[in-house]
Every structure is written in structure tokens, then in C-alpha cells.
Design a protein that fits this description.
It comes from Gordonia humi. GO terms for molecular function: endopeptidase activity. This protein has eleven helices and no strands. The N and C termini lie far apart (75 Å).
Amino acid sequence: MDRTTPSGAALVRRRVRYYYLLVTLIVAIFAAETTMHFTHYTWSRWIVTITAAIAVCLAVGSGLRAGDLGVAPDTYVRGTRWAAVIMVVVILGVGIALAIPPLRSLFHNDAYRSLPWALFSAFVLIPFQTVIPEELLFRGIITGALLRRHSVPVSIAVQAVLFGLWHVVSSIGLSDGNEGIGAVLGTGVAGQALGVVGAVAFTGAAGAVFGWLRVKTGSLLPCLALHWAANAAGAVAAALAWRLG
């Protein structure tokens, strides 16, 4: 047998180590998300960002390449084209929804009553605390690692489920903090539970779309664009919705 060819036992050990590392990463990022939402320190708001930066360094050190993470230079042009179209479509869609009075109340998010704060969030906090870290973690590292061992459908499905579960903590109290959603689901325990289930289902479906974009284009840029446009446009739309009554 060629000494350069790994034995069956060596391949099994390598695969087991791979899964241990992936599980450790998932536990770490979920712990970071929980810490961020249940503490009120300035530094804890950046803990997911810091975790993502460390995770990228470890992923590269473990053998993942730029192509695995969706940031290979040869994907920039294609990724930029998709990203530009996505941003225009999403922002126009949010603008149209905001212009329709029955839909406007769905944007009434208490976190963005102030327009200056919504703009600061849209261009600073949302990109650096949410969009970039989450896309690097889920569509970059986790998807890239899964694609090395599994089929495309399995890889997209697994990261989508994880992305949906990632939003359990952040969706607690969703119906209380959003007037429009609270009016639909209610604000009691049942309403809060429905808010969590709905948020997990919605973000899980969004994760599947993000994953498809990542595989389709080979680039992380369209995922970043869609994630940012939806969140940032939603924040600004919320502030405008309050002003429009």
C-alpha cells in the first residue's frame, strides 16, 4: 500500500476530529450569541464579531481555503453583480411595503423609533455585529466545512437549520417589541412562543436561500448583500413607519 495514502482507520479518525471541531465551533457561537443577548455590557455586544474573527483564523489554520469560505478572488465580479441586483430588489420591496398603510404597522419595531439611531444601526451595528459575523460563520465556515464532506442539499439544509435555531434567543419577546407582530400573534406567553417559532421558521428558510446563493455564485457577497439589505432597510423603514404614524 502507498504510504502516502491514508488508511481506512486514519480517514475515520480524521473525520471524527472534523466533526468534533465543527460541534465545538457551533457550541461556541451559540454561547456567544446567548451571552450577547443576556448581558448589557458594551463589550458583549461585539462578542459574536470577535468569535467570528477567531473562528475564521482557526478555519484557515485547519485547512479551509478562500474558496471554501466564499471569498476567493475569482468570484468577486460574479458576486458583486448578484449583490447589486439583490440590494436594489430588497430595498425597493421594503419601500413599497412601507408605502402600504396596512403593512406599515409590521415595521413598528420599538428598537428603531429614532431615525438617527436606525441609520447608525443600518450602516455600523448591523453590518459589523450581525451580517458579516453571521455570514462568515454560517455561509462561510460551516457551509464550507460541510461541503467538504457532504452533498450540497445536506450542507445547505444543515446550516439553514442551525441558522434558524440561532435566532431562538434573539426572538424572545419579539411580539412585545413589535407592535404589528404583537397585534397579530398577541403579547402573552402563547404570542411569545408563536413569535419564537415563527422567527426560527422564517430565518431557517432565509438560511436556505442564503445557502443556495452561496453555492450558486460561489461567493459570500450575495449573501452579505441580501442579509444587510433586509436588516438595514428594515431598521430604517421602522423609523420611517413611526414617523408616518
